[in-house]
Design a protein that fits this description.
The complex is a heterodimer of chains A (85) and B (582). Chain A is mainly alpha-helical and 85 residues long. Chain A has three helices and two strands, in the order H-H-E-E-H. Chain A has one domain. Chain A has a two-stranded antiparallel ribbon. In chain A, strand 1 and strand 2 form a beta hairpin. In chain A, helix 1 runs antiparallel to helix 3. Chain A is elongated. Chain B folds into two domains: 487 residues, Up-down Bundle (Sodium/glucose cotransporter); 83 residues, no CATH class. Helices cover 69% and strands 2% of the residues of chain B. Chain B is built from 22 helices and four strands. In chain B, the strands form two sheets. Chain B has a two-stranded antiparallel sheet. In chain B, helix 7 runs antiparallel to helix 17, helix 11 crosses helix 21 and helix 19 runs antiparallel to helix 20. The chains are: A mainly alpha (85), B mainly alpha (582).
Chain lengths: 85, 582
């Protein structure tokens, strides 16, 4: 993997993760929230749960997916540099 | 031991711990003072970031805010956590790779311009002082209620403690005290929440408990809360009332603002490696999420408890906490219909916001107020939202040591954030204003000396804000986030992701964002507050959410101006290439 490919892979990952990020809070937390309220888990209406709980869990998972994916991309870049030298 | 003695004990012990850490972790160099020698373990940095970020308002006010807003309170929950995703993905790793000391450092170097650096310093100081004044008020409130010390003395004690570890230890001292403060704060937040969750629902996990059924009943807590709210004339607790576009913009402004707050960004300069910066943002968000997922549970519990323990009770038999907080001035009651009962319902009990107490007592022994009474509703109770956390243990009749714990936790939250803010103020003065702009000849020892002096002066000014709180603090919180979102975030983001952006673009972009956002907020909050309603707002966006639009104003100006002016020098392009790689 070259430096250029590394940056491309990084941007691609960012776009995917930020789309999920937007879906979590704007999608489930705000726009679809009233629709989701017709379902419930335990005593929570689903839209309410997403707005006050689920979105936060989603953000945490998202950052760790990013950490994991970036470590893999970084490793590819490093291996490649070692191969060359 | 009495509640008061316990509180003194807990607060005293926690202060001794902070000062002990300060002495142990003195800063020896500017590298120590500004970025803790870049040797902070990512988990420790995550905890320190969480303490840095969660202020007196997260600890004391947020649950109360949600308690009164119901579902709409999610704006704050999502807004103040989602920003960490932006921070982790878009800023933290690159800034760590850049490897300098302050936020204006990055902006000044990337845009090869002293002007850009100065504009950044200006935004940073404004944002940070706005924030600090709120912390000092928090310290004062906790001291006056729990230790029965005068507010001013409380603020001075807080100043001395912060002075000790911020001036002595710089970032190094602050980091390790913040780790300790995080532990104190989270313990103090969780213990009463768990207790109350067990009392109300029998479920020891508050995050699950507030979706559970009430003890000895098959009714869900939230259904009951919806019913109680409707009975009193409020909207159902689990339904939202604001328009989607406004909720979207407020949440987004809080997120981008969070990602652009200098005292949070600078924490990611302190870890050893780029990959640690990413990990550390994840740990920080876990630490924050523990409190932020508990807060809505506390909000729901305390709302039910509050309504049930006072509604239609006679004032004479009302619980002690009601009278205690009335004496502090955070609760007021006016018997509008002269029945001697406390009638709580929708609407403001009287005009002019906060109660203005007279020295006299009414027929029931209640404190009399000057404010004219409102005629359009039957509500008789004024409640400051802060008491939903502070009085929560009393309302739920928890043991005295839990209350003492809450006092120590509130102080930890306020002091940790104040210290982080004071540090970025002082380093932007000693490093960016003096060393990099006006006094480039000073050596490291002198710079460290100036850093300590400016920290001391900043603490003094922050203390003055605490003793003489400017009346506009509540209004300017929107300001801090709006400015961070419309100036600092775009400047850093474009600096990393758009190589072509030059100094002209960045400077005009920041100034444009600053001007647009501040004039909108000043107009609606200070010049014509009577026009502050959805019909007059631009695209239906409230002043709280305008920072999001300000960010796009910044983007557009920056890109347009850049396209018309010269390319940045090769050296800068090479620097951007370098920070993009791990």
């Amino acid at each position: 993997m070259t430096d250029k490919e590394y940056w491309k892979a990084n941007i691609k990952l960012l776009i995917i993760l930020l789309s999920i990020w937007l879906m979590i809070w704007f999608g489930f937390g705000i726009v679809l929230s009233d629709f989701l309220d017709q379902f419930s888990i335990g005593g929570f209406k689903l839209g309410f749960w997403f707005a006050q709980q689920g979105s936060i869990y989603g953000f945490v998972i998202l950052i760790f997916v990013y950490v994991f994916a970036m470590n893999r991309i970084e490793k590819k870049l490093k291996d490649n540099k070692e191969d060359k030298s | 031991m009495s509640a008061q003695a316990l509180t003194y004990l807990f607060v005293g012990l926690s202060f001794m711990l902070y000062i002990g850490i300060a002495i142990w972790s003195r800063a020896e160099s500017t590298n120590d003072f500004y970025v803790a020698g870049k040797g902070v373990n990512p988990v420790a940095n995550g905890m320190a970031t969480a303490a840095d970020w969660m202020s007196a308002s997260s600890f004391i006010s947020m649950a109360g805010l949600i308690s009164f807003l119901g579902k709409d309170g999610a704006v704050y929950l999502m807004g103040w956590t989602g920003g960490y995703v932006l921070l982790a993905l878009l800023l933290a790793p690159y800034l760590r790779k850049f490897g300098q000391y302050t936020v204006p450092d990055f902006i000044g170097t990337r845009y090869y311009s002293k002007t850009a650096r100065l504009v950044a310093v200006l935004c940073l100081i404004f944002i940070s002082f706005t924030y600090v004044s709120g912390q000092m008020r928090g310290v004062g409130i906790v001291f006056s209620r729990f230790l029965e010390v005068e507010i001013n003395i409380g603020v001075i004690i807080g100043m001395i403690v912060v002075f000790f570890y911020a001036v002595l230890g710089g970032m190094k001292g602050i980091t390790y005290t913040q780790v300790a403060q995080y532990c104190v704060m989270i313990f103090a937040y969780l213990v009463p929440a768990i207790f109350i969750s067990i009392l109300i629902t029998g479920n020891p996990v508050p995050q699950l408990g507030f979706g559970d059924t009430l003890v000895n009943s098959s009714t869900y807590l939230l259904d009951k809360l919806d019913q109680l709210s409707i009975d009193l004339g409020f909207n159902a607790y689990t339904e939202s009332t604001k328009s989607n576009i406004d909720i979207f913009c407020i949440t987004a402004a809080l997120m981008f603002g969070t990602a652009g707050l200098p005292h949070v960004i600078v924490r990611f300069f302190t870890v050893p490696k780029v990959s640690d910066a990413r990990k550390s943002a994840g740990y920080a968000l876990i630490c924050i999420a523990i409190l932020y997922t508990t807060a809505p549970a506390v909000a729901a519990f305390s709302r039910v408890n509050f309504i049930e323990s006072i509604q239609e009770k006679s004032y004479l038999d009302s619980p002690d906490w009601f009278k205690n907080w009335e004496n502090i001035g955070l609760i007021a009651w006016k018997d509008k219909n002269d029945d001697g009962l406390i009638n709580y319902s929708v609407g403001k009990a009287f005009e002019e916001g906060r109660p203005d107490f007279l020295d006299s007592r009414g027929s029931q022994g209640e404190r009399e107020i000057k404010n004219p009474i409102t005629k359009d509703n039957d509500n008789e109770v004024y409640i400051d939202q802060d008491i939903m956390v502070l009085a929560n243990p009393e309302i739920a009749k928890l043991p005295a040591w839990v209350m003492a714990l809450v006092a120590a936790g509130g102080l930890a939250a306020a002091l940790s954030t104040a210290a982080g803010l004071l540090l970025v103020i002082s380093s932007s003065i000693s490093h960016d204003l003096l060393k990099k702009t006006f006094m480039p000849k000073i050596n490291e020892k002198q710079e460290l000396f100036y850093a300590r002096c400016s920290a001391a002066i900043a603490i003094f000014i922050a203390g003055l804000f605490g003793i003489y709180p400017p009346g506009f603090v509540a209004q300017v919180v929107a300001f801090a986030f709006g400015l961070a979102a419309s100036t600092i975030f775009p400047a850093i983001f474009l600096g990393i992701f758009l190589k072509r952006l030059n100094k002209e673009g960045a400077i005009f972009g920041m100034l444009g964002g600053l001007l647009f956002t501040s004039s909108y907020i000043i107009f609606f909050k200070f010049i014509s507050p009577e026009l502050n309603n959805p019909e007059n707002w631009l695209f239906g966006i409230s002043p709280e959410g305008i920072g999001f639009l300000g960010m796009f104003v910044n983007f557009m100006i920056a890109i347009f101006v850049s396209a018309l002016t010269a390319k940045p020098p090769i050296k800068v392009e090479q620097m951007v290439d370098k920070i993009r790689l791990p």
